[in-house]
Amino acid sequence: VPGPLIDVDVGQQLLVHFTNSLPEETTIHWHGVRLPAEMDGTPRMQKPVAPGGSFEYRFAFKDPGLFWFHPHIRSDDQVEKGLYGVIRVRAPDEPESDNESIWVLDDVSVLPDGSLPTYLDDESKMLGRQGNTLLINGQATPRLRWRAGALQRLRIVNVANGRFFNLALPGHKWRVIGTDGGLVPQPYDTERLLISPGERYDVMVIVDGEPGANLTLTNEPYERGHDTGKADPMPLAHIGISDETPLAGRQLPTSFPDLERLDDGPDEVTLDLNEKLVGEDLLFTINDATYPDVPLIEVPEGDLRRFAITNSSKMDHPFHLHGTFFQLLSLNDEAVPPQSLANKDTVIVPQMSTLRFVARFDEPGGWMYHCHILEHAEGGMMGEVNVTSP
User: Fold this and answer.
1) Using CA atoms, how far apart are residues 233 and 208, in angstroms rounded to an integer?
2) Which residues lie below 8 Å from residue 4, measured CB to CB, with a gap of 6+?
3) CA–CA separation, 294 vs 381, rounded Å?
4) What is residue 363's predicted lDDT score, i.e. its pLDDT?
5) Using CA atoms, how far apart are residues 257 and 272, in angstroms rounded to an integer?
6) How far is the C-alpha of 263 from the C-alpha of 286, rounded, in Å?
7) Of 12, 22, 169, 241, whose CA is between 20 and 30 Å from 151?
8) What is the DSSP string of 142-188?
9) Phi, psi (rounded to 5 degrees) for 377
10) In terms of Cα–Cα distance, which of 221, 216, 189 is closest to 339?
11) Across the beta sheet with 214-219, what order do the strands follow?
12) Which of 382, 299, 344, 305 has the alpha carbon at shortest distance from 198?
């Protein structure tokens, strides 16, 4: 845990010979990758691979960035048990750094006897599984070594079922240079790097500290609903500053090439996220329906759609759209500032708020959208977009 890194250049084609050795059916979904719909690994477009069965995935990478892969069948259980990996897609002109690392963030529940629980308690049903042990690349509180003055690049993905990571490093700010869909035109600084399940961030820091010093990377509390902000900070990693001579003269990047800005599409899709109890079952709904009964959204190939997503629940939901990127327009009717332009495929919709974004659907076929708290998706908070050819 995690699975092997797939390291490729933009434009390269990937061929995956997939065999299912599980005792249950599954697929591979290539999260964030723009590809043909029949390669997306969802029940909408692919018959699940039965135990002992096989399938070939074949597609080319259109976009540089950090992406990841995981099952889209019983994902709440299969991802929790470690079925995920990362894809780094490099551009010809990557930003320079002294060191580049990939951090795959996860958590897991470990019982006193060292075993992992197999049941889903009421809190996990509501919030998504949140473990008592935090992981970076499968290791609990690893010891990392950085060099003073070095320009450190970190590509970070949150693969946890339900945990939001809110990263803090004493004496440092995070220079955000990219997100789900690659580099952003205007990098920005933040003291806390908030990453919801499914999101990716590309950040840089200049290591500040005397040789021999030690820093503790922490996951800070974040109120995403139901008093989750009252939790204590949790150590995530220990970073030792090496005894090497500090490097000097490093500069953080301040700009990258502009992105194509999507026009604000004339047609608006309205979605309402909520939850309800039906008997003893907790269901997570879109427009008061649960998947597969959420009405299908029809979009002609090449068209733009504006989405207005209202979160009527009292917890944040990370919304993920397959097959394309989107750009944020407004939160609670307040326009997103121009410097926030980015290509996203996963975004936090805050509790009791309305978020608008615009997407262009260039690839025909069926595409899923859902909350990326995996217990919520499996509990009904999922729908489909059908992109029709002319």
Assistant:
1) 22
2) 85
3) 9
4) 97
5) 35
6) 26
7) 12
8) -EEEE-TT-EEEEEEEE--SSPPEEEE-TT--EEEEEETTEEEEEEE
9) -60, -50
10) 189
11) 143-146, 234-241, 214-219, 165-168, 193-195
12) 344
Percent of the chain scoring above 70 in pLDDT? 100
| DSSP 8-state class, residue 339 | G
Q: Could you tell me which of 66, 220, 239 has the C-alpha nearest to residue 134?
A: 220
112 upstream amide cis, omega within 30 of 0:
no
φ/ψ (deg, to 5) at 265? -60, 145
Res. 264 pLDDT band, cuts 50 70 90: confident
Q: What Å distances lie between residue 326 and 108, 183, 214, 316, 319, CA to CA?
A: 31, 14, 40, 19, 11
- Report the alpha-carbon distance of residue 215 to residue 174 in Å, rounded: 15
In whole angstroms, how far apart are CA 155 and each of 135, 208, 362? 15, 19, 27
Closest CA to 220 of 160, 168, 158: 168
State how far the Cα of 319 lies from the Cα of 347, in Å rounded to an integer.
5
Cβ 12 vs Cβ 60: under 8 Å: yes
Alpha carbons 306 and 6: distance in angstroms, whole number: 33
Amino acid at the residue 39: M
Question: 117 falls in which pLDDT band (50, 70, 90)?
Answer: confident
Q: How far apart are CA 169 and CA 239, in angstroms?
A: 9
Q: How far apart are CA 255 and CA 185, in angstroms?
A: 5
Q: Which two tokens stand for residue 265?
A: 């599409």
How many Å apart are CA 46 and CA 48, to the nearest integer? 6
